[in-house]
Every structure is written in C-alpha cells, then in structure tokens.
Amino acid sequence: MRRKLAAGNWKMNGLSGSLGEAVALAATHSAPGVDILLCPPTTLLDRMADAVHGSKVAVGGQDCHPAVSGAHTGDISAEMLADAGASYVILGHSERRADHGESDALIRAKTEAALAAGLVAVVCVGETEAQRDAGETLAVVGAQLAGSLPDDGVTGDSVVVAYEPVWAIGTGRVPTLEQIAEVHDSLRAALNARYGAAAEGIRLLYGGSVKPGNAAEIFATSNVDGALVGGASLTAADFSAIIAALEAAPAA
Ligand SMILES: O=C(CO)COP(=O)(O)O
C-alpha cells in the first residue's frame, strides 16, 4: 500500500512572515495516514525546516542543478537543498519547463542528482491545453515520464510522480475525474512496465487547482495517491482541509 502524500508548492511566494503558516500547519496536523510536504522558495528553506522540525511536515526544494557544485551562478545543488534541511525536491514543473526551457533529459539529470543526494524527487508531467485538444495527452505525459526518469534507483522511496495538466494550474479549471483517472492509470501502467515491483510504491499525485472543495472527489479517483497543491498550500487553513480530505479518502 502506498502512503498518501499532500505536497505544497509555494512557487515564488512567501517572505519571512509566511513561515507562520508552516508553523500553524505543523502544530495542527497529526494526520497519521498522510505524509505532508511544503516546498517554499529557497530563501525560506532552512528556516522552515527549523520551524517545523519534529513535526509531520517535511520540506523540499522546487528545483536543483544536476551538478553537485561548481561554476553555476544562481543555481542550487541537490546536496545544498539536503544540507538546508530538504528531504524532497520538485523537478520538471511545467513552469520550469516553460520559463527555463527545461528538457526531459535535463530533468532526468536533475533527478539523478536528487537521488544521489538522498532527496525524494517529485517529477512533474503534464500536457498543455493544445495538446489535450489534439488528443495527445497520454503520448505527451508518457514521453515526459519516460524521458525524465532515470533507469536506476527509481523506487517508491526515491521518486514521486505528479500529473499536472498545464491548463489546470492556477486557473480554477480541473479535468474531469475520468480524465484524471485515464492519465493516472496510464502513468501507473508505464511505471510498472519499466520498473516492475520497484514501481509499486511510487506515489502518483494530481496537481492543478486542487482546493478544499474539490479535494475529496479527486482523492477518490483511481491511482491518485495525493496532491501537489499550489495556491491552496499557502495558507494552513486551506492546506489542512486538503490534508484532512486525503486522510479520509480510500487508499488508491
Ligand atoms: O502547479 C501547481 C503545483 O505545483 C498547482 O498550482 P495551483 O494549485 O495553484 O493550481
């Protein structure tokens, strides 16, 4: 059985004062059946890790460089994230694929670096609206999955996959439950085919306009093991409600 995971991606949001939301989340949430993750901007990472230390809340980065160290101005290595208190890192988010031209090959190299540093890699895939309209969704996310994951070291303890349709991110639009199930079933089958028994524990998260009001039905959908939440993870109240919905959901 896979452990459920509620992951919050703060993106480029949050100053020092926002740490109170993480502290409130850590203080109020016990949710024994759910792993909880917050990925703040890098500037808050070590302070957030200190602030939630000893609670259920893990912290993670939002990106890393494939190299361990070196002449890469402005970049952060996986080892540095781990050193700052991270245990996870989000990789291949569509905003990075779009804003920074990240390719599947680069994301694969970053995933290898994350695994080498002992971080859990949360690898994101998702189609644009044009790709969905063209009937290419399964081909697009399948190719992203195949290209973004390494051959070795991929298990339920090292990798999480997040399906985030680009057109659902920050828009308030959500795919139908049938559309979510179709993609998650296909990702699950692809992971099983490539990694065999090692794939069994790999969590599949849905992301894109997850809110307290729609979380329960999404979590009841086939092969959904949790969520990668953007806007609604910025406040402890909203994220707590999503965590509670995940706790109450039947196991995938
Ligand atoms: O991109 C996302 C999480 O990584 C989803 O963002 P929203 O929940 O704000 O749509």
Which secondary structure elements does this structure contain, and how are they paired or packed?
Layout: E1 4-9, H1 19-28, E2 34-39, H2 42-51, E3 57-61, H3 78-83, E4 88-91, H4 94-99, H5 104-116, E5 120-125, H6 129-133, H7 137-148, E6 159-163, H8 177-195, E7 203-207, H9 215-219, E8 226-229, H10 236-248
Helix pairs in contact: 1-10, 5-7, 7-8
Bound molecules: 1,3-dihydroxyacetonephosphate (13P).
Jot down its keywords.
single chain; alpha/beta; TIM Barrel; 10 helices; binds 1,3-dihydroxyacetonephosphate
Write a structural description:
α5 (104-116) packs across α7. This protein has 252 residues and is of the alpha/beta class. The model has no long low-confidence stretch (mean pLDDT 97). The longest helix has 19 residues, at 177-195. The protein has one domain (4-248): TIM Barrel. It contains ten helices and eight strands. The N and C termini lie close together (8 Å). The radius of gyration is 17 Å and the shape is globular. Helix content is 39%, strand content 16%. The chain has helices at residues 19-28, 42-51, 78-83, 94-99, 104-116, 129-133, 137-148, 177-195, 215-219, 236-248, and strands spanning 4-9, 34-39, 57-61, 88-91, 120-125, 159-163, 203-207, 226-229. It has an eight-stranded parallel barrel, surrounded by six helices. The structure holds 1,3-dihydroxyacetonephosphate. 1,3-dihydroxyacetonephosphate (13P) binds next to β8.
